[in-house]
Design a protein that fits this description.
The complex is a heterodimer of chains A (195) and B (98).
Chain A (H helix, E strand, L loop, with lengths): L7 H9 L3 H22 L6 H14 L10 H19 L13 H12 L9 H12 L4 H12 L4 H8 L3 H27 L1
Chain B lengths: L1 H15 L13 H11 L5 H26 L1 H5 L2 H6 L3 H9 L1
Classes of the chains: A mainly alpha (195), B mainly alpha (98).
Chain lengths: 195, 98
């Protein structure tokens, strides 16, 4: 993903001198990193390209604030994550799903997870991911983010703390609360399915 | 909770197996467009910083005003009795002179 030959310090220096070619090279260099973050946190109805553009424009605006204390990619990742959080907060409505709202495959996967100890088949992975997104979509933005980073991206508490700016204790507390809410969602779906 | 945890972890493990989109190259013209826009925007100057903080300052000023008015409400409102008890120094001088 990262281009080894890319001379980041020199590029940043040129960007600070308002060199448009260097700015274009920087965007191309960072695009894979940014678009992966955007895709994993993409709010509904927001085009990924628009969100990526907003992140890059913020990055250029704040470039003078970057002092090199952390790796540049971490600094940009943090801007990307906080921009996604802001977008998600702007969309306050959180959908509520019932069993009937799930696709056939998603319902099968959920049934399997709820009623047996068996593993979900590899060819049901897409349905499992959609189901996870639907469940997470019912959580608050911060809860959704912490669970997604912990359980789907398998990041450590320290990494999440660095990405979000929350201290490690806050990350743990949010994860604990989010898991509690997820448990309730599972139970609710189970109850609705039985009734 | 433990039972639920195992269910969630199995579901999350299955979700992680789902393929992710691997087209991570910037769309044609994206980098040029963003770079041009970023480089043509003037960097934030003192005026922009002033503008950024002025709204907050306005909120703070409103809050302080309301707090001040609330704290001194009785003094502002006054009571009819207070007004009647006020001594008019001019009329007092005239009365004494007569």
């Amino acid at each position: 993903m990262v281009d080894e030959a890319f001379d980041l310090p020199a590029c940043l220096e040129r960007v600070r001198q308002r060199d448009q070619v260097a700015a274009r090279e920087l965007v191309e260099h960072l695009y894979p990193l940014v678009i992966r973050i955007v895709r994993s946190h993409l709010p509904r109805r927001v085009a990924e390209e628009d969100l990526a553009q907003e992140i890059f424009l913020k990055m250029f605006t704040r470039l003078d604030q970057y002092k090199g204390a952390v790796a540049f990619s971490h600094w940009v990742s943090r801007i990307a994550v906080t921009t996604c959080i802001d977008q998600l907060r702007a969309q306050k409505r959180r959908p509520e799903y019932r069993w009937a709202d799930l696709s056939e495959k998603e319902a099968e996967v959920l049934d399997l997870v709820l009623t047996s100890e068996g593993e979900v088949a590899a060819n049901d992975a897409l349905a499992a991911r959609e189901l996870v997104y639907k469940l997470l979509g019912q959580l608050k933005v911060e809860d959704r983010l912490v669970i997604r980073l912990l359980d789907l991206e398998q990041r450590s508490v320290a990494e999440i703390s660095e990405l979000t700016g929350w201290n490690p204790s806050l990350v743990k507390v949010r994860a604990f609360r989010a898991r509690g809410k997820l448990k309730k969602l599972f139970q609710e779906l189970e109850r609705k399915e039985r009734s | 909770m433990k039972d639920y945890d195992s269910r969630w972890q199995r579901l999350a493990a299955a979700a992680r197996q789902a393929p992710v989109a691997d087209d991570v190259a910037a769309p044609f013209g994206f980098a040029t467009r963003v770079a041009a826009r970023a480089m043509n925007e003037s960097p934030p100057g003192a005026l922009a910083i002033f503008g950024r903080f002025s709204v907050r300052a306005l909120y703070l000023a409103c809050l302080l005003t309301l707090t001040g008015v609330a704290a001194n409400y009785l003094a502002f409102a006054g009571t009819p009795d207070d007004e009647q008890n006020l001594v008019d120094p001019v009329s007092e001088v005239f009365t004494n002179a007569l």
